[in-house]
Amino acid sequence: MNVYLISTSEVDKELISNVKNLLLGFEGPLSFHAEQHIEFNTMEEDRVVSWEALFSICERYRSNYNSVKKEDYIVLLTDRKNERSWFSAFDHKNNLFIKTSGWETFVTIDRLYPITYGVVSGILQSMMQLDLSGDDKNIHKRSIGCMNDLCKEKIDVSLQLRTGDICNSCIKAMLEKGIDKDIIWQAKKVFKQISDDSRFLNNFIYEEPPKEVTVTEEGSILIGDTLLKNLNAQQKALYTLYLLSHPDGIKDIDLLDNKLKNKFRYLYQRFSGKNNISEKQIKNIMVDRTSDIRSKIKDIIMKRFPSTHHFYNIKSGRLLSRTINSQTPRIIHTNFIPPS
């Protein structure tokens, strides 16, 4: 059975790829595929979107590709606000949506884990034909650390991820619905990995404060004493621009602001020693390279700081806004502070 991960246009491609790669680590009947962004221009930035509208995106994807079978699942990842403010929901046509923002309010670990958990749990709950609108006997109003906990409180979400469990009564209900044992086993393996990672990362987050990010006089960038190697002048300039930015971050539309472009030009000239960067190059780098630099920095620091990488990378905060964690201390040599 195929599971197609799609997204609305504001979701980072890197996030979709990371979710898929985590899921691909577990063999079983569910085969995961990361597909392209879906443009949905009728969704205004701050508009609350109906579930029907979200599921219609899944249906539109289904109708556009003959290779998608009726029994396959379409999972939509989206930052958009929905009418009930739920993190996930499904219809009974094998369509799901998962909200990709706001998880930092509920968990201290990377949102990759609750989102991945939501993909698998949503598929199983759909197969169980849970009634999301009523009093389904398989939904636990009081949390017990099961996949089907209602999770009314913040602590309930953390409990669900840490236990990685499906209670015996819910497993029995799945089998009675005819759900393949191998799918249940595949899901339990995913949950077990998320549980192990959640507990491991939580321990490190509480024990290890963020280290200083330093931009030296020579133009090197370090996290603690770890040098970020192989960053070119464009990448260094863009990363430093985010280090210097307001704690609320930089919205995508701000990247076209002349003051911000002039700051980037200054930084690029400092890091590269060149003065011949064109206006077009500046615009292209600032708009198109943020995901590239985020991915590259993550590859570098994940090996050294697996549990605290979120302190140092450029992340999406509020809708279409990007920033570096405000708790991250930073020391930037005056050579790399643009004139105001």
Query: What percent of residues adopt helix (DSSP H or I)?
Result: 40-55%
Q: For the largest beta sheet, what order do the strands appear in spatially?
A: 2-1-3-5-4
CATH superfamily of the largest domain: Collagenase (Catalytic Domain)
Q: What is the CATH topology of the largest domain?
A: Collagenase (Catalytic Domain)
Oligomer: single chain
Summarize the structure in words.
The protein has 340 residues and is an alpha/beta fold. It folds into 2 domains: 2-207, Collagenase (Catalytic Domain); 213-336, no CATH class. It is built from 10 helices and 12 strands. Helix 4 crosses helix 6 (181-207). The chain is elongated, with a radius of gyration of 22 Å. The protein starts with a strand and ends in an 8-residue tail after the last strand.
Could you give the topology of this structure?
Blueprint: E1 2-8, H1 13-23, E2 31-38, H2 51-64, E3 73-78, E4 88-90, E5 95-99, H3 112-128, H4 154-163, H5 168-176, H6 181-207, E6 213-215, E7 221-223, E8 226-227, H7 233-244, E9 250-251, H8 258-272, H9 279-288, H10 290-302, E10 314-316, E11 321-324, E12 330-332
Parallel strand pairs: 1-2, 1-3, 3-5, 6-12
Antiparallel strand pairs: 4-5, 6-7, 7-8, 9-11, 10-11
Short summary:
The chain is an alpha/beta fold and 340 residues long. Helix content is 41%, strand content 14%. It folds into two domains: 2-207, Collagenase (Catalytic Domain); 213-336, no CATH class.
